[in-house]
Design a protein that fits this description.
Helix content: 40-55%
Shape: elongated
CATH superfamily of the largest domain: Periplasmic binding protein-like II
Radius of gyration: 24 Å
Largest sheet: 10 strands, mixed
CATH class of the largest domain: Alpha Beta
Number of strands: 12
Number of domains: 2
CATH topology of the largest domain: D-Maltodextrin-Binding Protein, domain 2
């Protein structure tokens, strides 16, 4: 009888150990994480949608530049020690492509509560808020715009890149003006310049480039309080282990501390202005 009990004890212990190993296997696999997989593959894939000066793409060579592509390139080469590839995306699919593992990192994403339900974020690399560029000679608009109520009127057309943080922000604010949602950076600017749209809603830095390029007619209205104020960061898959996110955050913190990000912002603005002159 004693021998039977001992055998039962050994069997139960063995089953418990086996069960713990089975349960631990997925957890261990999860903890290996994104960067381990990237190192094994030897390449970091960065999904990118154009939005100067944060993300720029040379139409001839297809090469990416700007604040976030350069940071993604440096993180891959300096920290992960791998090659970096950029995958073309747009603002409507920049999150879905990350979720479906078409790339490892989405560059230059606004950190919003809605997106946090689907993906994870690094610490912000730069700050963001929304303002409006318009033609100061447009007779449909007030000579002095002082509030959103001055432009949220029937017959006013506001253009915005579809799927962006600016799109979501103005959708929540505008009740009477018509919102034109177009897929890309160039399309929205052409709509404003051709006078199909009365105002362009975009982030403050991007609109700064437009007014600097066309000072003869372009001016901006910035709401008070700031509209859509948030950080711009890198998007990561929801299951990314905290240690992997922290590794990226440490990299961003170093680049902020040594002034590298400020330098990238200035250089990207200058490059954007040069391309449009």
């Amino acid at each position: 009888m004693i021998h039977v009990i001992q055998r039962l004890r050994h069997a139960l212990v063995g089953a418990a150990v086996l069960g713990s190993l089975v349960l631990a296997a997925p957890a261990q696999a999860a903890q290996e994480g994104t960067w381990s997989e990237v190192r094994q593959a030897g390449v970091l894939r960065c999904g990118a949608a154009v939005s100067p000066p944060y993300v720029m793409r040379d139409p001839k060579s297809g090469e990416y530049s700007g604040v976030f592509p350069e940071l993604c390139r440096q993180f891959g080469e300096e920290v992960l020690k791998v090659k970096v590839e950029f995958v073309d995306s747009n603002w409507d699919s920049i999150v879905a492509g990350l979720q479906s593992q078409k790339w490892d990192v989405s560059v230059s994403l606004n950190d919003t509560p809605q997106r946090r339900q689907a993906i994870a974020f690094t610490a912000p690399a730069v700050d963001y808020s929304i303002n409006f560029t318009y033609n100061k000679h447009n007779p449909k608009l007030p000579r002095q715009i002082s509030s959103l109520a001055d432009i949220d009127k029937p017959g006013t057309n506001v253009v915005v890149m579809s799927g962006t943080a600016a799109d979501k922000a103005i959708t929540a604010e505008f009740k009477q003006a018509k919102i034109m949602r177009l897929p890309g950076f160039d399309e929205t600017r052409l709509a404003l310049m051709s006078k199909r749209a009365d105002l362009l809603a975009d982030d403050n830095m991007t609109n700064q480039l437009l007014t600097a390029t066309h000072p003869d007619w372009a001016t901006t209205f910035t709401p008070v309080p700031m509209l859509g104020k948030q950080g711009i960061a890198f998007g990561l898959r929801k299951e990314t282990p905290p240690a992997d996110i922290e590794a990226f955050n440490a990299f961003i913190a170093r680049k902020k501390a040594d002034g590298a990000i400020d330098g990238l912002v200035k250089a990207s603005i200058e490059a954007s202005l040069t391309q449009t002159r």
